[in-house]
Write a structure and sequence with these properties.
Shape: globular
Structural class: mainly alpha
Helix content: over 70%
Strand content: under 5%
Number of helices: 19
Length: 441
């Protein structure tokens, strides 16, 4: 059936498709704040927060980056059983390879020969960072497998199951964090690493269980489409994989820059709770990407998606402004995050500089979703390369001038890079018609 014969997409349909994914991403966004709050309540909190925010989490994200877009790929390509099986094999090999790379960095001299000279972390954070990386070894493979199966769920209108899986993940993570805090004798970085690894593994298991009914039901009955050959898969996926890889390069670059700016240990320690709050406000905007991928191309989709993007942007920026520009900021960072007074002050003064980031995330998801739906993925890594160039240039200037603390410079740099990225995505997708059919650019 052609898109012109379908009923027009409504804003209500967009919301219905979005909210389960948004709930899932919001819970994942809250996870970072919960981890930071747990570490802040254990011994040597400043050192372990600095290790988590400056070494463990940035490197774990960077290593898993090539597989992050498997959710969008599975949503777009898991159209029949044969395509599903081919994509599953690709996911398994990619996840195993990235986990091996993670293990090499964590367990071999590469950590001392490569990670420490590049990131230049405070001495007190080096060994906690090593331990945290070791405990996060299952992360990449678990992320790859669960995002692959979640894409299948979204493809066949089971997106609510994605949110359910994230609830399972959060329960497991919180249980480990809570047990660690109550015990009080474990290093904070160990509690964080074990909690995150157990949580994402639990989500992997739930995604597989939820996907069984789809695999044996609608996927089995789906008509065969064009064979998903390896060249076709790579042509589609490599530009997508480059997107988060380039995007997440800014994490270790940011850590390395903060380490070279004024008061590095305190700023690295404040960074996890600051970035956790910022990510939580952006998370539901990230969820919008899969909605755009699945709905754009249908009649009436663009006006409905555009209206929803506008109101979502306003709401998310208002939320972050409420937290960051009122006394709620002190309540959040002191009462909830459990930071010491000196770290509360650093965090409280920095967060307002990222108020526009939630809106930029929403529109990035909107424009990227249009391009992915049309299989015109080349523009996506182009935009992220521009983001990386602008952000790195701003960070370099900040480190060179020593004018502002590292957290402030990082938020300003990311905002400038995100603005440039959005402009490029808008420019590249503006010529797509509402009913564009998939075709490689």
């Amino acid at each position: 059936m052609s898109a012109t014969n379908e009923n027009p997409v409504t804003t209500r349909q967009v919301f219905t498709a979005w909210w389960p994914l948004a709930a899932s991403w919001l819970l994942m966004g809250a996870e970072m704040s919960l981890v930071s709050a747990a570490v802040a309540r254990l011994s040597d909190a400043k050192f372990h927060l600095a290790a988590f925010g400056g070494i463990v989490f940035p490197l774990s994200l960077l290593i898993e980056a090539p597989i992050i877009m498997m959710l969008a790929a599975s949503t777009a390509l898991s159209v029949d059983r044969d395509s599903f099986q081919r994509l599953k094999r690709f996911t398994t090999y990619a996840g195993a390879g990235l986990s091996l790379l993670h293990a090499l960095v964590a367990f071999t001299p590469l950590y001392d020969l490569l990670v420490i000279p590049i990131l230049d972390p405070p001495t007190e954070a080096i060994e906690p960072g090593r331990l945290g990386l070791m405990l996060m070894t299952p992360w990449s493979w678990a992320i790859a497998d669960r995002r692959f199966h979640q894409g299948l769920l979204i493809r066949f209108d089971r997106s609510k199951k994605v949110g359910t899986g994230t609830i399972v993940r959060l329960i497991v993570t919180c249980s480990v964090l809570g047990a660690g805090v109550l015990h009080g004798g474990f290093p904070g970085i160990a509690v964080a690493g074990v909690g995150l690894s157990c949580g994402v593994t639990a989500e992997l298991i739930s995604a597989r269980l939820f996907a069984r009914s789809v695999i044996s039901g609608p996927l089995e009955r789906a008509p065969l489409a064009e064979p998903l050959t390896l060249p076709r898969l790579l042509k589609f996926y490599i530009p997508l994989a480059l997107t988060p890889l380039l995007n997440l390069l800014v994490q270790p670059i940011g850590s390395a820059s903060i380490s070279r700016m004024p008061v590095p240990l305190e700023n690295l320690a404040a960074w996890p709770p600051v970035s956790g709050l910022i990510f939580m406000s952006r998370s539901t905007g990230v969820a919008f990407n899969e909605v755009v991928v699945s709905l754009s191309g249908r009649a009436g989709a663009r006006p409905a998606l555009g209206r929803f993007a506008l109101w979502l942007s306003i709401g998310l920026c208002a939320f972050l402004a409420l937290i960051s520009l009122t006394p709620l900021s002190s309540l959040w960072f002191k009462g909830i995050s459990g930071l010491s007074p000196e770290l509360v002050e650093i965090a409280r003064l920095a967060v307002p500089l990222g108020i526009l980031l939630p809106a930029m995330t929403v529109y990035q998801s909107l424009h990227t979703g249009y391009l992915v739906n049309a299989h015109k993925t080349r523009a996506v890594p182009e935009s992220v390369a521009l983001f990386l160039i602008v952000t790195t240039a701003c960070l370099t200037i900040g480190a060179w001038t020593d004018a502002l603390p590292g957290v402030k410079v990082t938020l300003l740099s990311i905002t400038a890079g995100a603005a440039a990225q959005n402009l490029w995505l808008w420019y590249r997708q503006r010529s797509l018609s509402e009913l564009d059919t998939p075709a490689e650019s």
